[in-house]
Amino acid sequence: MRLVLLRAALVAVLAVVSGLIINSGQLNALLHQVAVQDAADYAPRPVELPFVRTWQRAGKLIVDARALDSYTEGHIAGAYSAPVGDQQRLQALVDCCVQRAEVLVYCSSITCSDSFAVGELLFVAGFKQVYLYEAGFADWLQQQQLWASGSLSQVDSVQSGGGEH
Question: What's the pLDDT at 28?
Fold first, then answer.
């Protein structure tokens, strides 16, 4: 009896795998629809300077969506660089940190949309809550907050939640 059940289970598994292989194009289209549907649910929460300061002091994940050269010139201390279009850095960020579920994203100022775009990508990738510091780095500097400059660090330091990024 066990042999019959084992054979039936094997046939079922082979049928499912064969069906997935044959219909992989349809499966990819379905997965894409799910991602687009998730993106439609994207509703970042705008935050102001006091929230960002508290977030930073708590050592929570902050993402700078500006270009790498802008980040190197100056960024919120503790922020991780993940510019729009840099798939490698965005993927590394997701791989290390999606379990945190929350992220705060900023870019240069209220006129910059990069933080919204990066936030959407992170939301679709699995971050449950995205906060946007819409006033961005310009506001941070104007309010005379501490900032850092310099090169990029490894994702490991982001995962641990500490250190300069």
Answer: 42
Alpha-carbon torsion (115, 117, 121, 124), positive or negative: positive
Return the H-helix or E-strand segment holding 63.
strand 62-64
pLDDT of residue 147: 64
Q: Where are the beta strands (DSSP E) in 11-52?
A: 45-46
The residues that bridge with 64 in the sheet, in sequence order, are 81, 106
* Residue 110 three-state SS: coil
Distance CA 55, CA 36 (A): 29
Tokens of 13: 């598994």
Q: State the pTM of this model.
A: 0.69
| CB-CB neighbours of 120 under 10 Å | 16
CA distance 51 to 84: 24
Q: How do beta strands 80-81 and 129-133 pair?
A: unpaired
The helix or strand, by DSSP H or E, that contains position 152, with its residue range, turns out to be none
Question: Would you give the end-to-end CA distance of the chain in angstroms?
Answer: 61
13 forms beta bridges with: none
Task: Note the pLDDT tens digit of each residue in 39-91.
Answer: 788 889 999 999 999 999 999 999 999 999 999 998 999 999 999 999 999 99
**Residues 126, 41 contacting (CB under 8 angstroms):** no
